[in-house]
Amino acid sequence: xxxxxxxxxxxxxxxTLVGIAVDRRRARTADVGVVSGPEAPAGKxxxxxxxxxxxxRLREEAKTLREQLAAALTSAGKPLLPAxxxxxxxxELRKKVPALLEAKDGKGLISLMRELASLGEPGYDxxxxxxxxxxxxxxxxxxxxxxxxxxxxxxxGDFWKIWTGRMVPMLAWSLAHPERASSWFxxxxxxxxxxxxxxxxxxxxxxxLTGEKDPEVAAGLAxxxxxxxxxxxxxxxxSARVHxxxxxxxxxxxxxLGKLGTPESVAAxxxxxxxxxxNVRRAAEIEMKxxxxxxxxxxxxxxxxxxxxxxxALQRGDIVVSWNxxxxxxxxxxxxxxxxxxxxxxxxxxxxxxxxLVTVDLxxxxxxxxxxYVAPGK
Length: 378
Hints:
Largest sheet: 6 strands, antiparallel
Number of strands: 6
Distance between the termini: 41 Å
Strand content: 5-15%
Order of helices and strands: HHHHHHHHHHHHHHHHEEEHEEE
Number of domains: 2
Number of helices: 17
């Protein structure tokens, strides 16, 4: 999203205050288990999450970001109306909804929703009401693309284009107001916010996660923790404590904790190695493997198969120890070997996977991966 003139200046100030998320790579886990499971012992999580003052400070920063964002973007550079005037304007605009529904004017509803959102919080309830009407028409009542009404003359393309610009502050606001925004709306807000260059999404998501009650939204928040910094450690450790029964959220939350590498985050990962859910235990072991590697080699952080029907040759958490019999001695060594591999050739890799060394035959070139070099004691 591009914002010009004074809007960009205010957005820049907001970004300077809390940092702008620039790493858009999304950390995902292949097998995330069920939404909830047997409770894990609190132990180290309780101790590691003890920084109440720091958690509160970070929550205040997130609140400031929301306010800065709203001031910069809501009205596209125009001064916001006084609260009472905005409330009156919102009431007038909401009266137009029945006529637009009667006319089956989906694009008119979209325009009205965006106008309501531009009023700030006084217009949000009306905008949310229209968003639900549009969702029912395009995606169906459950948001699962089943039983869509398809009466308003808009399609999926029209629907997904409407969430940028003036809608962004409302999306950020919705995360902090589950009593007014539906779980569907809040979960879908994450996608737009995570890709918006004006929003420090990871900071907002980390703050929201500490108090999130909906397990599905919590799982989405954890999935989009793309760019985390050590100062977020109190929020993420607190989130691990709060959501220790949510086996769907924890694997991605563990990835974020692993990126931090703070004593508190490492303690939280250690605790979750004993979780009742096998997928959570596996995710915790993978993160500890990067922090305390058992062998030297190229640690695979992410790997994507070019063909979704073909299982990937490497997995997150693998450590490639040797390439065609030669030890891998640096990340540069690994990437150069990958670049030299023949398209139609087969490469023999020795990989530390789980708790053992296995041989993996790599066919063709190795592409779409990232990672780092690790070694015991480093």
